[in-house]
């Protein structure tokens, strides 16, 4: 009985790590462009990723995003990301990538820029490789 309770508590604790309310199921394609800032999403020079391997990188990004304490970045985002789902829904994010392992890459939901999310170094590396291959 004690083992079951301990495993349940551990499962709940681990589920909280890296958790957020972002959707990852049914991603059809991801569109990425260099950002013009917070005011609007860039409509030109868009890279579209729709292979399972590329989509998996963005799923990993979303799943691993941990809430950041403090105030949002004051500098405009580097990238606008639009995730399109099979059901026709769309989510939009702002992304800052930092290839310095001592600094944080971050992600913000375009609908709620009051809360930032930190991206782990391995996710940042995956994203940089993917974006460089798409140029």
Can you describe what's shown?
The chain is α+β, with helices and mostly antiparallel strands. It has one domain (2-134): Immunoglobulin-like. 31% of the residues lie in helices and 30% in strands. The protein is built from three helices and seven strands; from the N terminus they run αββαβββββα. The protein has helices at 2-16, 52-64, 121-134, and strands spanning 27-34, 47-49, 66-67, 79-85, 90-96, 105-109, 112-119. The protein has a seven-stranded antiparallel sheet with strand order 2-1-4-5-6-7-3. A hairpin with an 8-residue loop joins strand 5 (90-96) and strand 6. Helix 2 (52-64) packs antiparallel against helix 3 (121-134). It starts with a helix and ends with a helix. The model is unreliable at 1-17 (pLDDT under 50).
């Amino acid at each position: 009985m004690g083992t079951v309770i301990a495993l349940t508590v551990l499962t709940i604790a681990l589920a909280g790590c890296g958790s957020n309310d972002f959707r990852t199921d049914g991603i059809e394609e991801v569109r990425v462009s260099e950002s013009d800032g917070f005011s609007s999403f860039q409509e030109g020079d868009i890279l579209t990723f729709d292979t399972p391997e590329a989509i998996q990188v963005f799923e990993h990004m979303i799943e691993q995003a941990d809430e950041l304490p403090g105030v949002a970045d004051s500098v405009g985002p580097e990238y606008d990301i639009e995730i399109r789902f099979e059901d026709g829904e769309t989510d939009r994010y702002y992304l800052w990538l930092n290839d310095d392992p001592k600094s944080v890459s971050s992600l913000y939901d375009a609908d709620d820029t009051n809360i930032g999310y930190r991206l782990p170094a391995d996710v940042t590396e995956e994203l940089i490789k993917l974006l460089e291959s798409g140029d």
